[in-house]
Amino acid sequence: MKIEIWSDFVCPFCYIGKRRLEEALEHFPGKQVDVVYKSFELDPNAERNTGRNMHEKLAAKYGRSLEEAREMTQNMTEQAKMVGLDFRFDSVVPTNTFDAHRVSQLANEKGLGNAFAERFFKAVLTDGKDVGDHETITALAVEVGLDRDAVVSVLEGSAYTEAVRREEAEAQQIGVQGVPFFVINRKYAVSGAQPTEVFVQGLEKAFAEEEKTPAFEDLSSESGAACTEDGCEVPGEENK
Questions:
Q1: Where does the record place the DSBA-like thioredoxin domain (predicted)?
Q2: Pairing between β-strand 2-7 and β-strand 181-184 as defined by DSSP bridges
Q3: Cα–Cα distance for residue pair 34/21, rounded to 1 Å
Q4: Vertex 10: Cα angle to 192 and 191 (nearest 5)
Q5: Confidence tier at 214 by pLDDT (50, 70, 90)
Q6: Distance in angstroms between the alpha carbons of the first and the last residue of the chain
Q7: CB-based contact 104:86 (threshold 8 Å)
Q8: What distance in Å separates the CA atoms of residue 205 and residue 203, rounded to the nearest whole number?
Q9: Is the peptide bond before 214 cis (omega within 30 degrees of 0)?
Q10: CB atoms near residue 166 (< 10 Å)
Q11: Radius of gyration (Cα) for the chain, nearest Å?
Q12: CA–CA separation, 3 vs 201, rounded Å?
């Protein structure tokens, strides 16, 4: 079983979706599952070192007050708590994630992709780390087991640039418009941080049909909570 996940480290719903998938996988003890994290930049043109936190960025982007910006993230904070995550948007640093994605390719090669994704999500959404900063990227990558010199070599050059671009192009080809986006065995898609039971349904189908080749099917019952370059939204919230 192979599960591919397109995500970005500054995407709150990507971390929530990761946890819900993990909850779903607990229903299938003993099953072999290969989870691969693939690159997707929510904002390829994002700046580094803006000096603003996430609430300040949202307030400026949408012409809202800081209090209104905090209200915009409250639902995500509550959803995070339900899966054991602690989001601290006042300390989240908006940044460019391209170099972090390049190093994530190295982590995938070394079998550390899942650990890398976990550490970088937490670094951004809980610890307030700037994962666009090379020193920060290096320190976090070493934490998960990557060789410091190898990481520095990637960051100082252009290694894995094509790999990141290739995965982003692939996402565009299969119709990914927001992340997280999950593809199970190249047969089933789950778009957004869907409820755990949706992941369970997809896994049940995939395990039952691994020897077959059904048509690609989107299992999302409706629009799931996801992030795009325009921001993160919960379906229905815009009508409140």
A1: 3-202
A2: antiparallel
A3: 12
A4: 10
A5: low
A6: 40
A7: no
A8: 5
A9: no
A10: 14
A11: 17
A12: 14
CATH of the structural domain 2-44+96-239, one choice from 3.40.720.10, 3.40.30.10, 3.40.50.150, 3.40.630.30: 3.40.30.10
Long-range pairs for 41-44 at CB < 8 Å and ≥24 separation?
41/8, 41/96, 41/97, 41/98, 41/101, 41/168, 42/8, 42/10, 42/11, 42/97, 42/179, 42/227, 42/228, 42/229, 43/96, 43/229, 44/96, 44/98
Single-letter code of the amino acid located at 199: F
Q: Which band of pLDDT confidence, cut at 50, 70 and 90, is reported for residue 169?
A: very high
Summarised one tens digit per residue, pLDDT across range 77-111 is: 999 999 999 999 999 999 999 999 999 999 999 99
Dihedral sign computed on CA atoms, order 123, 154, 101, 49? positive
Q: Model pTM?
A: 0.87
Rounded to 5°, angle at Cα 14 from 199 and 30? 40
DSSP code for 100? H
Distance CA 139, CA 143 (A): 6
Do residues 147 and 112 make contact, with C-beta atoms less than 8 angstroms apart? no
For residues 107 and 1, the answer to whether their CB atoms sit within 8 Å is no
Cβ atoms 152, 24 nearer than 8 A: no
Q: Give the burial string for 81-94 (b: 16+ CB within 10 Å, else e).
A: eebebebbbeebbb
Place of tokens 């996430």: 54
